[in-house]
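We close this part of the discussion by returning to an individual protein. The sequence in question and its structure tokens are set out directly beneath this paragraph:
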Amino acid sequence: MRTRQRTVVRHAPGKLFVAGEYAVVEPGTPAILVAVDRRVTVTVAEPGPGAGAADVVVSSDLLARPVGWRWHEGRLVVCGASDAGRARGALAHVVSAIETVGRLLAERGLPVPALDVSVGSRLHDGGRKYGLGSSGAVTVATVAAVASFCGLQLSNDEQFRLAMLATAELDPKGSGGDLAASTWGGWIAYQAPDRAFVLDLARRLGVDRTLSAPWPGHSVRRLPPPTGVSLEVGWTGEPASTASLVSDLHRRTWRGTASHQRFVQTTTDCVRSAIDALEAGDPAGLKQQIRRARTELARLDDEVGLGIFTPRLEALCDAAEAVGGAAKPSGAGGGDCGIALLDAEASRDITHVRQRWESDGVLPLPVRPALEGIEE
């Protein structure tokens, strides 16, 4: 049954990588992520009388004014704005998400209605991103809101797959782990599909059939939250580009070497052991694997020279380990956030670590795991 609402609001949480960074870009290689309770909100409504010739109007808290778009051969083009390049860059994930839902509607013989799309986010500070997966969250929230406004009733898996297709069109190297965390929420074990295979499938068979086709390597499952530990998050204040760091790694001759294979194998074993620790309620075992994950990322950084560890990320990790905790960069590194697992009962240690972070230029972020993914 297909119904259309006049206004639809969807919220999607940000994410943190717990373990498995870089290795997860290889199809079928596991990682652990957790959704966080800061969200992107996307509101979709019918355009007002000021929309003019635009088929889609998008407003965002990252832009000074709304931007009008019109459909042209299945793509959205800016309606005559002098800063069209900036608009497309700032709204790339939103636009790709709308285009992907539009392709699905067209394949099902359904019209694409005029849309007014508004985006607000708590995953940045005045445009400076925290590194909590804002691009993934806005893609997921846009897919969910636009699809619902257009009367499509989709499962979490279908919404994730649409978001994956939209993101892979922009960056086929991204793992999609952020999309999965934003879609399902909570703590998850994630394995990426072969993005090149999936994009080729969509081009040959269409979006609709690709949603129900097997995706080699892909897997998502919920994990129990850890017991006995507090997840602490620190922001270095140094924005980093995950896409740039991952692309840089792909350009290196390191990929495909024995060292690369060892990194993937060791990281896979580390992630699987961390999953076992979560499922067994073993906080000591979980912290041991987080320390091991830090060591592997440091080895990768030493061998390839990506700049994963900055002085502030090193200080963040050292402060946590000094009180018996475990810590590491979350995500691609080079800035953004780090995470620490500390004894939940040791309130003095937690306070001490936060104070150490602040003295080293790291801002403790008051974020907690988000138990739910997409919300109305």
In short: The mean pLDDT is 92. The longest strand covers residues 30-45. The radius of gyration is 21 Å.
